[in-house]
Write a structure and sequence with these properties.
Largest interface: A-B, 48 and 38 residues
Largest sheet of chain A: 5 strands, mixed
Strand content of chain B: 5-15%
Largest sheet of chain B: 4 strands, parallel
Mean pLDDT of chain B: 89
Strand order of the largest sheet of chain A: 2-1-3-4-5
Number of domains of chain A: 2
Strand content of chain A: 5-15%
Strand order of the largest sheet of chain B: 2-1-3-4
Bound molecules: iron/sulfur cluster, FE2/S2 (inorganic) cluster
Distance between the termini of chain A: 57 Å
Helix content of chain A: 25-40%
Structural class of chain A: alpha/beta
Mean pLDDT of chain A: 91
CATH class of the largest domain in chain A: Alpha Beta
Low-confidence stretches of chain B: 1-13
Number of domains of chain B: 1
Number of helices of chain B: 4
Number of helices of chain A: 8
Shape of chain A: globular
CATH topology of chain B: Rossmann fold
Oligomer: heterodimer
Radius of gyration of chain A: 20 Å
Low-confidence stretches of chain A: none
Chain lengths: ~280, ~160
């Protein structure tokens, strides 16, 4: 696969079809990868592709307005691109999406339950050899952790989240790594008004984590990057997945499935649930 | 002092004179329907509990989920959003958007372990003073039963 990725990148750069290709290269430790920003056809050989390609590269696309960018996109990266297009954050004609069929189900825990390993949107799809094309991902148990939590008593849930949130050090790595966390001024950084405490108090941490997750409702594509980035191991995907499940169950909405669809909270239906209102 | 410059409700007396728990509830009422409805309840001299502190907003669609969180984190025992009935919103569709986002927020808060009784919504028109009084009675009772808010209270 990597040869095909390099070949395509070379072709695009040489023909000046793109100004830059964003992919992955090996990091200093010789094992993991970091994002690579390649702007010359000679450099394409530094591109790599393996199960260490964890970063969601959609996170970088907004940084090059007006430039033509080629981007290597796994299933989750592509879904994030769809969300960003829906929200008018990117110009489709400035993107060349090199979709990669992502059969490496051990990139991280989330991959084990990833429903779509093929890019939702792409200009070329690079297939994994030996994999039946279009073979579906593994969707079973996608909500097992959420359901297990739902089944517990309310006090237990509160106790559990209080404990998790109390460890948060407010580094905001979860925010920085998320392609959809692009607000020019995050509420967590606002001082007028300051919506919640900036100190690592339980109150501030609680508010921060609930706010982060909720602002991604209907937008999070479950790339899992926030959870991976969190230095204190807060199970952020268990928050994200609950919201994903709600969007699906209440509104049949799935983030990142259609560029044309209106975002979840920018639309409504006359038949939306109403029984919770007096 | 909380960050918004208001005194934190955590410090408010939560106990009534007789020792029972008196919930402190924040109400976000849309200007055009529920606020007028509450006004009508008052001018009609209807009796209902005084626990809801009302904040007037232009429309239920104006209510940001952060408002709810802010109230709960600063110690309010409950939050009530009230707006025009579906079809009557003065901005046509504000309450549709509100309904959609707060259905999700309610379930999410419950998932985190926050008693769903602490966050409620109602549609009350300008003519429904009696409904407003009824809604407030119910909500106050609900939240009284849910007990004082200890969501973000530091462990003793
Ligand atoms: S919230 Fe986390 S899992 Fe969801 S898109 Fe952002 S980084 Fe990825
Ligand atoms: S990455 Fe983890 S510790 Fe850092 S702000 Fe996010 S939740 Fe808190
Ligand atoms: S104006 Fe009352 S809900 Fe919109």
């Amino acid at each position: 696969m990597i040869e095909e990725i390099r070949q395509k990148a070379k072709e695009l750069l040489a023909a000046s079809k793109v100004d830059m290709v964003i992919g992955y290269r090996r990091s200093g430790d010789g094992v993991s990868t970091v994002p690579a920003f390649i702007d010359s056809a000679q450099d394409v050989d530094s591109l790599v592709w393996d199960q260490n390609c964890v970063y969601n590269l959609a996170n970088y696309l907004r940084e090059f307005p007006g430039k033509k960018i080629g981007v290597v996109a796994k299933g989750c990266d592509a879904r994030a691109i769809v969300v960003l297009l829906q929200e008018n954050q990117l110009e489709r004609e400035n993107l060349f999406i090199i979709g990669v069929e992502c059969g490496v189900t051990d990139i991280s825990e989330k991959c084990a339950a990833c429903p779509r390993t093929v890019s939702a949107i792409c200009d070329i799809l690079i297939k994994e050899k030996g994999r039946k094309s279009g073979a579906p991902g593994n969707e079973k148990d996608a909500y097992a952790a959420v359901e297990a939590l739902e089944a517990r008593r309310a006090e237990e849930r509160l106790g559990l989240w209080r404990e998790e949130f109390s460890r948060c050090i407010r580094c905001y790595a979860c925010r920085q790594v998320c392609p959809m966390c692009y607000c020019p001024k995050c509420v967590a950084d606002q001082t007028m008004p300051a919506w919640f405490s900036k100190a690592t108090s339980l109150e501030g941490n609680f508010a921060w984590n609930v706010t982060r997750a909720f602002h991604l409702a209907g937008r999070c594509v479950d790339c899992g990057e926030c959870e991976r980035a969190c230095p204190v191991g807060i199970p952020l995907r268990d928050l994200n997945k609950k919201l994903e499940k709600e969007a699906k169950e209440l509104y049949k909405y799935e983030a990142g499935s259609s560029v044309e669809a209106k975002p979840l909270f920018a639309s409504y239906d006359k038949d939306d649930p109403k029984d919770f209102i007096k | 002092m909380s960050a918004l410059g208001t005194d934190s409700m955590k410090d408010d007396k939560k106990m009534a004179a007789d020792g029972g728990f008196e919930p402190n509830i924040v109400g976000f009422l849309c200007n055009w329907c529920s606020y007028a409805g509450a006004d009508l309840a008052g001018t009609s001299r209807m009796q209902y509990p005084p626990n809801v502190k009302i904040i007037r907003v232009p429309c239920s669609g104006r209510v940001n989920p952060l408002f709810i969180l802010k109230c709960l984190m600063d110690g309010a025992d409950g939050v009530l959003i009230s707006g025009c009935h579906i079809g009557d919103c003065h901005y046509s569709e504000g309450n549709y958007y509100a309904r959609r986002r707060f259905a999700v927020l309610k379930n999410f808060l419950e998932y985190i372990g926050i008693d769903p009784r602490r966050f409620q919504m109602s549609w009350v028109s300008a003519a429904e003073g009696d409904k407003w009084a009824k809604v407030v009675k119910e909500v106050v009772e609900d939240i009284r039963n849910a007990g004082p808010n200890t969501i973000s209270a530091e462990k003793k």
